[in-house]
Amino acid sequence: xxxxxxxxHASHAxxxxxxxxxxxxxxxxxRKHLDPLEPGQLLEIRSRESSVDEDLxxxxxLTGNELxxxxxxxxxxxFLVSKGKFGGAQVQxxxxxQAPPHSAIRTEAPSPAPAMLQPLPRFAVMGVGxxxxxxWMLQAVHEYLEGxxxxxxxxxxxxxxxxxxxxxxxxxxxxxxxxxEQRRDTYAGFVGSRLDNCxxxxxxxxxxxxxxxxxxxxxxxxxxxxxxxxxxPAVFGRLKRTRPLAVxxxxxxxxxxxxPTKIALPGPYxxxxxxxxxxxxxxxxxQREDLAADLIYILREEIAELLAEGVALIQLDEPILTxxxxxxxxxxRSFMCxxxxxxxxxERELAFAADLMRQVCEGFPRHRLAMHVCRGNWSRDESVxxxxxxxxxxxxxxxxxxxxxxLELCTPRAGEMDVLRDIPSDxxxxxxxxxxxxxxxxxxxxxxxxxxHAVAAFGPDRVFLNPDCGFATFADNPVASAAVAEAKSAxxxxxxxxxxxxxxxx
Length: 506
Description:
The chain is an alpha/beta fold. It folds into 2 domains: 13-94, TusA-like domain (Translation Initiation Factor IF3); 166-181 and 240-503, Alpha-Beta Barrel (TIM Barrel). 36% of the residues lie in helices and 14% in strands. The chain has helices at 22-34, 52-63, 94-97, 135-145, 151-172, 213-222, 247-256, 268-275, 288-308, 320-330, 346-361, 394-398, 444-458, 482-503, and strands spanning 13-16, 42-47, 66-73, 76-82, 196-202, 231-240, 262-266, 313-317, 369-373, 404-407, 428-434, 463-467. The strands form 3 sheets. The protein has a 6-stranded parallel beta sheet with strand order 7-8-9-10-11-12. Strands 1-2-4-3 form a 4-stranded mixed beta sheet. Helix 8 crosses helix 9 and helix 13 (444-458) crosses helix 14. It is globular and about 65 Å long.
């Protein structure tokens, strides 16, 4: 079959196969997405693997399914396959075929996923993830976690908060929108409310599990952490994903915005460190590697569905990496989800983290995956956050199986940008050019100066622009107001426009 410019029919379901070939997992993904369809309905399979051009038509013939059309643009491929013989009948709507597995989650109809996502422009502007939540949204989060607000009522409330966050970003002029993590109590701990056999408990409930509970409680107070309101996931059974972590967030966001979207997920090492607590997790998992194996499976399922949903960038958050290399030398505890876990040898931990990231990302398109690293974002007090440049993490960053690194670079705590010059040329750098902890929006000239420094180090094609971190990593402890977040985002967007006038859009 010869490739076409576009498919003649709309698909009822779609997914991103990335670099997987038919002998390395792609057929399993096809079966997973094809089985729920009715006979005659269409599945779109997106791929970047050249061998699929020949193998997929052969598979269709052998299995009695029909390859309806084939679209190819550069290295991006899209196959439209009918379940069984295709007669052109539309048995049910595409929206129904892609309904989320948990019926209690309310979403609006998504806009159609494009067969080929458009590349992002030079100096693309976007947030890292979180956006300050309205007071009524914070109340809804607490009532929901405490069982006093139903799932449906919570999702209705969160929908309104997401509309406000997305509208503010669009007004600011960003190139990629997030949902502001409005449905999450924290950037990482929220998974405890989404996974089976996991429960979110207040940090104060976990004090008996640390070496010195009284000392730890004093540390939390000194670090400006609301330990009685921040919740931590506790594992009491084998983890299972019977409803999505963030697919419902992506689907709703794409239903209200036509802009490219970005979804942040806690990375595999962060989740493993967060959930592995002595005397709690080991009652279920013999060792933390067993826990990590289940988390890898869960994250891969989530990423595959987010890619199929048309999310432009999926960001894996791994700020705990800086805690690994700097907390011990600083002789103080940092507060991040994950810092409660046991501290082992630094080199061993970095190798473990790199291996987990490799397993999670394997086979997926790198250009749509990202990783974020910072030094903590729970307090406006810079003195309690970690400091140190990226040298101890360079080997891990250089081998990262992602297409973009979103890095804290605006504050002096992050060290010099030039340390990163040896990052491979196929990795883009999301340069932190705004400090979310300060009240004043950065001057355009200072943003441009930082961006020009990045251009000198990495070239204009590899530079994205963003704040150092989110504006409200922990729902109850935002580091900025919504007005400040919008002003800072707008300043970055204006600077990016001036840079494009100089260097071009692409």
